[in-house]
């Protein structure tokens, strides 16, 4: 229901802003630009779905090998003590536990192509446990919000873009991004825990979160001691080495159990193809609405309004130039990336605003894209409070990114 109102609001706001542009600013081309953006976004949605088809087929094929080889069952037992406390609706030993773990692990390693297929598999398994097939369950909501927080230990893509834009030290935003995304993750977890009355002060939960904090501190300590130009290369190698090792371990375990690895992969790949086809309408719907909203100039008006309001308080307004990235981040990953690159192009990759837009880009994931893809893949229509909690996590991550940007680079 909330997504329905948001979708309608995007279109109505775009129309009103376009009328203002036509009447008061004489922009007679604005409606043409909006419709061009709409058709372009629809095409992009279809192309993204086609791109996901390959990744989904690959990773669901690998997951099927892991399932038949018994690896997923073993992993489920390992993570069960923690997950059974924050996902009480999931029975102990259920395959959804392992899929969630694999998805969050891939996200933390910055491996988006692996994270999405594993996330869709987790959502499918959670739907099997769901009593109301059109309404998001508590487990689905928590899983989605943790995804929108987008905890990333190794922000490879942001560092690569900074290098392409001429940054002297592309990895100088590494620590601020890590801290901002961790704050978003914890905020998302706490917000859902409050609604669902999950006890986060349980000894196992606190121990696991403490271990995560120790891991983040260790990564910061290790990478901070490396030559700056080697951080992206080392972290990229580590992430892909771990992922390939997981694939090999799945295959080895399946061979030991005398599983037909090839047939298992094909069966999983077929499921991936079916999921990719199913999400196309949901993806096109959200991307078209966002594309029209952006093309109307509503985002620019919003940014200018914020700059004016902040200026009235006497607070430093430099951060406002990075806000287009922040405002686009919950709506569109590619849109936010484009805003970040445009900001670095205009102000310089090593400027305060250039660095800040990079931190914002890495601080959270794309809430509405994730909701459209994940919930759409299983036909969820009533998202309940998932969007609200997801946006709370986004707000925490973006706010932290701005404050950390001033702390580190201003």
How would you describe this protein?
The protein is mainly α and 410 residues long. The chain has one domain (29-409). It has 18 helices and no strands. It has helices at 2-25, 30-68, 71-86, 95-108, 112-129, 138-149, 156-164, 174-196, 203-224, 228-256, 261-278, 280-295, 298-313, 323-328, 333-347, 352-363, 367-377, 386-409. The model has no long low-confidence stretch (mean pLDDT 88).
The sequence of SSEs as H and E is HHHHHHHHHHHHHHHHHH
Low-confidence stretches: none
The number of helical segments is 18
Q: Estimate nothing, just give the exact number of structural domains.
A: 1
Rg result:
22 Å
Which structural class should the secondary elements be placed in? mainly alpha
The fraction of residues in strands falls at under 5%
Query: In one word, what is the shape?
Result: globular
Could you describe the largest sheet, including whether it forms a barrel?
none
**Overall average pLDDT:** 88
């Amino acid at each position: 229901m909330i997504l329905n109102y948001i979708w309608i609001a995007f279109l109505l706001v775009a129309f009103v802003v376009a009328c203002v542009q036509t009447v008061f600013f004489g922009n007679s081309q604005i409606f043409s630009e909006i419709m061009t953006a709409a058709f372009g976004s629809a095409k992009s949605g279809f192309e993204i779905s086609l791109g996901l088809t390959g990744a989904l087929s690959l990773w669901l094929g690998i997951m099927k090998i892991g399932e038949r080889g018994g690896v997923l069952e073993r992993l489920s037992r390992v993570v069960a003590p923690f997950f059974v406390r924050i996902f009480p609706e999931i029975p102990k030993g259920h395959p959804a536990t392992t899929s969630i773990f694999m998805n969050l692990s891939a996200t933390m390693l910055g491996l988006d192509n692996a994270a999405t297929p594993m996330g869709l598999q987790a959502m499918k398994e959670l739907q099997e446990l769901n009593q109301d097939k059109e309404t998001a369950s508590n487990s689905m909501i928590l899983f989605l919000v943790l995804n929108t927080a987008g905890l990333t230990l190794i922000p490879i893509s942001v560092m690569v873009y900074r290098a392409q834009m001429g940054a002297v030290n592309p990895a100088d935003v590494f620590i601020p991004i890590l801290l901002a995304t961790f704050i978003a993750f914890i905020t998302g977890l706490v917000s859902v825990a409050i609604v669902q009355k999950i006890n986060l002060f349980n000894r196992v939960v606190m121990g696991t979160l403490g271990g995560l904090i120790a891991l983040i501190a260790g990564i910061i300590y290790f990478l901070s001691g490396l030559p700056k130009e080697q951080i992206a290369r080392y972290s990229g190698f580590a992430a892909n080495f771990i992922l390939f090792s997981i694939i090999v371990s799945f295959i080895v375990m399946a061979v030991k159990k005398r599983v037909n690895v090839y047939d298992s992969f094909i069966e999983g790949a077929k499921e991936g193809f079916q999921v990719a086809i199913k999400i196309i309408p949901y993806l096109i719907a959200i991307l078209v609405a966002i594309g029209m909203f952006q093309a109307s100039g509503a985002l620019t008006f919003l940014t200018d309004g914020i700059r004016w309001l902040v200026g009235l308080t006497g607070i430093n307004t430099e951060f406002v130039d990075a806000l287009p990235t922040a405002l686009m981040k919950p709506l569109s990953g590619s849109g936010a990336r484009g805003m970040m690159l445009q900001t670095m192009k205009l102000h310089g990759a090593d400027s305060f605003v250039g660095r800040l837009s990079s931190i914002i880009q890495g601080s959270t994931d794309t809430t509405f894209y994730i909701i459209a893809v994940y919930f759409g893949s299983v036909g969820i229509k009533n998202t309940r409070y998932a969007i609200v909690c997801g946006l709370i996590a986004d707000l925490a991550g973006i706010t932290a990114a701005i404050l950390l940007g001033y702390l580190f680079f201003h």
